[in-house]
Every structure is written in structure tokens, then in C-alpha cells.
């Protein structure tokens, strides 16, 4: 328990055990520390979690994508309090534009 703030940016959906990842993050925080979590979410209720097949947006290592409400429940189960969702945005190519040197497919080829 060493940090006032811990960041997890774009990691949670790549973890085979997302709850274990959240517990590990919590264990790094001092009492009343804060977690800044950035992750993919889907629309749905507190029980909605997408479990992609072989690929998600051409990524092979995406295991679980919860709804924002399901994610809040996961955080509560791991002992987090005062949980706030700062923003829910649709992923766009403006967020991750393909570099000029890229000749293969990029994010824009896999978004609906």
C-alpha cells in the first residue's frame, strides 16, 4: 500500500481475471487512495458483460468487456468506494488515427 493514485489505462479487458486485476490495484493504494481506470465498456445493465470469441476489434487478447454498471459492481466487490464514472465515449479513429507509415489495417477497419 504505497500509492495515493494508481492508473490502469486500457489494461482491464486484456486480463483473464479482471477482478484479480482490480484487487491488485486496490492493494497498491493507501487508505482513501484513488484508482483512475480507463477501459472499454458496453451498453447494458449491471449484469451485462461481453465475453468475445477469438477476437474483438481484431485483438486476440480481449477477455471481458463489462457494462459501466457491471464494472461499478466489480469495483464494489473489490472494496472500492465513491465510484464515479467520469466519461463514457464511443471509440473513434480520432482517438487512435493510423500513422502515415502504416500500410496494413488499423482501428478504423474494425469499428462498427
TrEMBL record:
Record keywords, A-Z: Methyltransferase, Transferase
Keyword Iron-sulfur part of the UniProt annotation: no
Species the sequence originates in: human gut metagenome
One Pfam family, short name: Methyltransf_9
SUPFAM superfamilies tied to this protein: S-adenosyl-L-methionine-dependent methyltransferases
GO molecular function annotation: methyltransferase activity
Name of the featured protein: tRNA (Mo5U34)-methyltransferase
An annotated GO BP: methylation
